[in-house]
Amino acid sequence: MTIQELYAKIGGNYEQAQKNMKMDKLIDRYVRKLPASGTYEKLAEAGKILDPTLLFESAHAMKGVCANLGLDALSLAAGEITEEFRPGSTRKMTDAEVKEKLAVLDEMYQRTVRGIEEYVAGA
After folding, report:
1. Under CATH, which number does the domain 3-122 receive?
2. Which of 3, 49, 92, 110 would you label with 78, given CA atoms 20 to 30 Å apart?
């Protein structure tokens, strides 16, 4: 599987990743690191306890990492959580709605990780 095939499989935006990182070698290096980065795990833990500060910080980190990698859907999903818990802003979602958003984000993330694992195994 090529890096472009991986992006097609996981619904990533390869062109954006290439624009951000300039070389397939860099995209490859950083996309491989995503599952072990701990970024998602911090967000998942924050979601379990619904800690506003931790949710904001971890969702913001995930949003940025995913945006740089061209993982637009994950970045947007993390962005929704980021904005919900941005300091100084008023919450618009109930705790149940936040948990639903986190469940959708989890599903997308797990699908992405499975794709990355297949890519790494085949490379």
Report:
1. 1.20.120.160
2. 3
